[in-house]
Design brief:
CATH architecture: 7 Propeller
Largest sheet: 4 strands, antiparallel
Structural class: mainly beta
Shape: globular
Strand content: over 45%
Number of domains: 1
Number of helices: 1
Oligomer: single chain
Distance between the termini: 36 Å
Order of helices and strands: HEEEEEEEEEEEEEEEEEEEEEEEEEEEE
Number of strands: 28
């Protein structure tokens, strides 16, 4: 794309009050900034400062705002979900590396990767209900469908912990494998945990943390994103340089696509035709054609891009509840 075309597109964004339905938001974790990309032009059109070390982002339950966790400045940057414009800052949210709302919207949870604690807030007003200190670099999270439990991976100790949301207490803490990261609950009977220190995922019983299954995907399996059909999930394999498509009913890999440079977080375009993947080691975002299961573009952004989100505005199907994985709209 030419510089003139990029500039023209940026002027259109400004004139229309910000990024619209064509926009993609990307967090540059080591540049303390976020980029706004054009899907149609496949180019970065804006870059804005944001605190320090932004890693993950998510929509509020009503779909109207995007929250960006600024870990080193202990705050959430609040953006308009339709335009990407800055609305404000929620301060005194300590080290919000990972963040998520429970499915019922009652609880808001952050995990402090740097400071080793899990914070449980009442979502209405962000009032802290409880802080649980736990060793092991708490990393990613997933909620049970009933909004009673949040599961948190502990990357350094190789464990998975379950916390009671109502009492803000630890339910169990078990070993699951090397460097657990992203996790999902595809149904009420299973928690699936990606093992970045190994080459696949483990299946865990949510009642007690017992391991009930395993699946090999690729080296440094890291993070999940739903395909949107209620059955298939993508899993990024950071060292392998691939993204696997998993059938969680049959528990098998049904597809792989090469995405070099440390594939990490993902999002799907509203039409379901493309998967956008941050390439942590290359300062780029990959575009995958899902019909061909092939990477068709790679867009330069800032240093160590991490979270990514389509700015689709309010009224979304399947509002994201946890930044680590997202929820399956089906």
């Amino acid at each position: 794309m030419s510089k003139l075309a990029t500039a023209a597109f940026a002027l259109v964004l400004v004139a229309s009050g910000g990024a619209r339905a064509d926009a993609v938001l990307v967090l540059n974790s080591e540049d303390a900034s976020y980029s706004i990309l054009s899907r149609s032009q496949r180019a970065e059109v804006q870059r804005h400062p944001v605190g320090r070390e932004p890693h993950h982002l998510m929509l509020t339950p009503d779909g109207k705002e995007v929250l960006i966790g600024s870990t080193a400045t202990n705050e959430l940057l609040v953006l308009d979900a339709k335009t990407g414009e800055r609305r404000g800052v929620q301060r005194n949210i300590i080290d919000p590396y990972q963040l998520g709302f429970s499915p019922d919207g009652k609880w808001f949870v952050t995990v402090a990767y740097r400071l080793d604690h899990v914070d449980i807030y009442r979502a209405d007003g962000f009032k802290l209900a409880g802080r649980i200190f736990i060793d092991g670099l708490p990393s990613h999270m997933a909620f049970d469908p009933e909004s009673k439990t949040v599961f948190v991976s502990l990357q350094q100790t190789g464990r998975l912990a379950a916390f009671d949301l109502e009492t803000q207490s630890l339910k169990w803490n078990v070993e699951v494998g090397k460097a657990p990261a992203g996790l999902i609950m595809p149904d009420a009977r299973r928690v699936m945990v990606a093992l970045t220190g190994e080459d696949g995922l483990v299946v865990v019983d949510p009642k007690d943390g017992a391991i009930t299954g395993k699946l090999k995907t690729g080296k440094a399996a890291h993070n999940f994103f739903p395909r949107g059909d209620g059955r298939h999930w993508f899993l990024s394999n950071r060292v392998e340089g691939t993204v696997s498509l998993i059938d969680v009913q049959e528990m098998k890999v049904v597809g792989n696509v090469k995405v070099p440079g440390g594939p990490d977080c993902m999002d799907i375009t509203p039409d379901g035709k493309e998967l956008w993947v941050t390439q942590r080691f290359l300062r780029r975002v990959a575009v995958v054609d899902l019909e061909q299961m092939k990477m068709v573009a790679s867009i330069p952004v800032g240093k160590s891009p991490h979270g990514v989100m389509m700015l689709k505005g309010a009224g979304l199907a399947g509002v994201v509840r946890a930044a680590s994985t997202a929820s399956d709209p089906k």
